[in-house]
Design goal:
- By secondary structure, the chain is of the alpha+beta class.
- The protein has helices spanning 69-77, 79-85, 170-190; strands at residues 2-3, 7-8, 10-15, 22-27, 35-40, 58-65, 92-99, 106-113, 119-130, 134-139, 144-152, 155-163.
- The protein has 2 domains: 2-49, no CATH class; 58-190, START domain (Alpha-D-Glucose-1,6-Bisphosphate, Chain A, domain 4, 2-Layer Sandwich).
- The radius of gyration is 21 Å and the shape is globular.
- The termini are far apart.
Length: 191
């Protein structure tokens, strides 16, 4: 079985010697340990019934914004604001953003080095949206992000939990996401 985004999904199928009524399917995973799936020999499964399992690492970043939740929500979600704060360092910027904030809606933010040497699109699909309280989405690679907005008078705590990717060190990912959230805090409080 082949998936255009991830490559070969099933690497090998064989009879399981310890369980003669079952087959052993070896699933190929580029960055994680190989996963074996055992099924009955005559079972029929569809591609969307195979769930990837791995030891996911969830990271969390947070900040308390000195602004009411209505303003925080607006600045977090409106493209004209996203382009002003969504970068991890001063030599980067977000020249483009769009956001369809509803379940099933998509978003995309282009992040680019100011010198033009590199850019990428960061995007996903919303799975949950509860106004002024909660957002959940899946990124293009399937990793999940959950964001809580907790109002307390004229301050709002924003907490983001996200599945780490496997290419960069955990510390670097945590620092990058925290830097972007810190930029959001600064922009929201100053405007």
């Amino acid at each position: 079985m082949y998936n255009k985004d991830r490559g070969k999904l099933i690497e090998h199928i064989d009879q399981d010697a310890d369980h003669p009524t079952k087959c052993r399917i070896r699933l190929s995973q580029q960055y994680d340990d190989t996963l074996y799936l055992y099924i009955n020999k005559n079972a029929k499964i569809k591609h969307d019934q195979i769930m990837e399992t791995s030891n996911k690492t969830t990271l969390t970043v947070s900040a308390t914004i000195n602004a009411p939740v209505a303003k925080v929500w607006e600045y977090w979600n409106k493209p004209e604001h996203i382009t002003q704060w969504c970068q991890a360092s001063p030599d980067w910027h977000a020249p483009y953003a769009d956001n369809d904030l509803q379940v099933g809606g998509t978003f995309k933010t282009t992040m680019a080095a100011k010198d033009g040497s590199f850019s990428f699109d960061f995007g996903g699909v919303y799975s949950e949206v509860e106004g002024h309280k909660y957002i959940a989405y899946a990124m293009g690679d399937g990793r999940e992000v959950k964001i809580k907005f907790e109002a307390d008078g004229d301050t709002t705590a924003v907490t983001e939990s996200f599945d780490a990717e496997t290419q960069n060190p955990i510390e670097m990912q945590q620092a990058g996401w925290q830097a972007i959230l810190d930029n959001f805090k600064k922009y929201t409080e100053e405007n």
